[in-house]
UniProtKB/TrEMBL annotation:
It is an enzyme of class 2 (transferase). GO terms for molecular function: carbohydrate derivative binding; glutamine-fructose-6-phosphate transaminase (isomerizing) activity. Homodimer. Catalyzes the first step in hexosamine metabolism, converting fructose-6P into glucosamine-6P using glutamine as a nitrogen source. It catalyses: D-fructose 6-phosphate + L-glutamine = D-glucosamine 6-phosphate + L-glutamate. GO terms for biological process: amino sugar biosynthetic process; carbohydrate metabolic process; fructose 6-phosphate metabolic process; protein N-linked glycosylation; UDP-N-acetylglucosamine metabolic process. This is Glutamine--fructose-6-phosphate aminotransferase [isomerizing]. Residues 40-182, 215-356 form the SIS domain. It is found in: Cytoplasm. The chain holds residues 250 to 615 of 615 of the full protein. The active site is at residue 361.
Length: 366
């Protein structure tokens, strides 16, 4: 059942090229320059007339929502807010029929997300679901939706659900960007072609596995980890830290790299591994100066870089290369080595990777 892999988590990490392909299959039509998503087509007006989009989710799905925020704002120029479902439901959120709420959930059973949906519906918002489990409570409770076709995710640590959620949300953003005139036909096509090439690039990224395992062996006994990223890769830093925490029980924090100097930099010494996502696109020079700040305080730098990078390589203790892609799609690649890093560290520490202590696959209690 684990298909020859030692753990479900590893199997699911390796399934990502196919899971992403299965998620865009039939929807992404690059030759016709079209994205087909009936859940959106039937409700396009709701989306194009919306004042804003509010994304509600928990955990890793919330991180996918944060990535989507950047994507929507660039590709579809729609204002987006991302909320923890548990906070949203207990506030008095100001929402009305002009708002579209997108609920993201792998299991489709998360209690807080389900309650947030019910609240948004009561207030008259249109609610769109992005779920993995067909026929789940959230899939049923939303007005419309689009499934991620990740296949069953058994490992408690979410991996392929995250990358397929980003895939669906990118398709949605593209559809809106085209409908509201933000994207020209040629820009739209460029995105489609690039998204279509992602599974192959994920495949190439998976080839870093042995090298990542080696890095894991060096840092497996660390007491703390910091993860830093900017822009599209800030949520990837949060996701990397969450993954490490939940399966290896090492304390880890994710931060936007520029926030370092507002506090966390005080933590840095020679004992502190810092994972920095430093791909060529987007704030590259800024990230380099962040890396220099860490280095001068003797922090150990593990950098995720674009293939062929030379500048970061000179500064970092370890680098992990990912193929080049357009900036909004980098999270689909940069997240892979971070999944592998947490996996290998957890295995080396003898942790129960697929069923970490205190955690359940779906959180159906508040
Ligand atoms: O099923 P959901 O996507 O609604 O679950 C949300 C979170 O409970 C989930 O992502 C959790 O954070 C994972 N264990 C993270 O790996």
């Amino acid at each position: 059942e684990k298909g020859g892999y030692e753990h479900f988590m590893l199997k699911e990490i390796y399934e990502q090229p196919n899971a992403i392909k299965d998620t865009y299959r039939g929807r992404l039509q690059s030759r016709d320059n079209f994205v087909k998503m009936s859940g959106i087509e039937d409700n396009l007006r709701k989306f194009t007339n919306a004042n804003r989009i509010i994304i509600v989710a928990c955990g890793t799905s919330w991180h996918a929502g944060l990535v989507a925020e950047y994507i929507f704002e660039t590709i579809a120029t729609v204002p987006v807010e991302v909320e923890y479902a548990s906070e949203f439901r207990y506030r008095n959120p100001i929402i009305n029929s002009q708002d579209v709420v997108i609920a993201i959930s792998q299991s489709g059973e998360t209690a807080d997300t389900l309650a947030a949906i019910k609240l948004a519906k009561e207030k008259g918002a249109f609610v769109f679901g992005v779920c993995n489990v067909v026929g789940s409570s959230i899939a049923r409770e939303t007005h419309a939706g689009a499934y991620t076709h990740a296949g069953p995710e058994i490992g408690v640590a979410s991996t392929k659900a995250f990358t397929t959620q980003i895939t669906v949300l990118t398709l949605l953003a593209l559809k809106l960007g085209k409908a509201n005139g933000t994207l020209s036909n040629s820009e739209f096509n460029k995105y489609l072609l690039e998204l279509e090439s992602i599974p192959e690039k994920v495949e190439k990224t998976l080839l870093t596995d042995e090298h990542v395992k080696y890095i894991a062996s060096i840092f497996k006994d660390a007491a703390n980890f910091l993860y830093l990223g900017r822009g599209y890769n800030f949520p990837v830093a949060l996701e990397g830290a969450l993954k490490l925490k939940e399966i290896s029980y090492i304390h880890a924090e994710g931060y936007p790299a520029a926030e370092m100097k507002h506090g966390p930099i005080a933590l840095i010494d020679e004992q502190m591994p810092v994972v920095v996502i430093a791909t060529k696109k987007g704030h590259y020079e800024k990230i380099i100066s962040n890396i220099q700040e860490i280095k001068s305080r003797k922090g150990k730098i593990i950098a995720v870089v674009t293939q062929g990078d030379t500048q970061v390589k000179k500064l970092a203790d370890h680098t992990i290369e990912v193929p080049e892609t357009i900036e909004p799609l980098t999270p689909l690649l940069t997240t892979i080595p971070l999944q592998l890093l947490s996996y290998h560290i957890a295995v080396m520490r003898g942790c129960n990777v697929d069923q970490p202590r205190n955690l359940a696959k779906s959180v159906t209690v508040e």
